[in-house]
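Worked example 2:
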Amino acid sequence: MRARAALPILLVLWISFVFLQSLFFKFSGSPETAHIFGTLDRWASGLGLPGLFAPGGLFSAHVVGAVELVASLMLLASLVRRLRRLRLPGALLALGVISGAILFHLFTPLGVAVPNADGSSDGGLLFAMAVSVWLSAAGLLWLSRDLLAGPLRRA
């Protein structure tokens, strides 16, 4: 398999791996997830938007996890030749949700290094993974630009 053909597959698998492995934490209410979304909810409350990141909120861990699951399923399905057109919306969805994560790490009290359940720091691992997913999704969009050209020509 040529590198040009293998790269989109690797990018899809990486994005899906990162998103799918995080679902356990988002759906189980793990201490790390509670810290992250609790910190964001306190920050949003200070802006007059209480409950935005709380359980049941518009951007709760369950909502974010569900979006990541949908993006992963679309991307994985796009590996089937006749479903390749799902790559573009899957990559756009992944890029959107991970852009939010990066912005919240950078511009809220959450910060780049997040505490683990035992009180130690993750050393920026979650942030680095978010950046790697962002780069992968952006790369996947670039590599899949032919999928966008068809609908634009028909419009």
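The radius of gyration is 17 Å. The mean pLDDT is 93.
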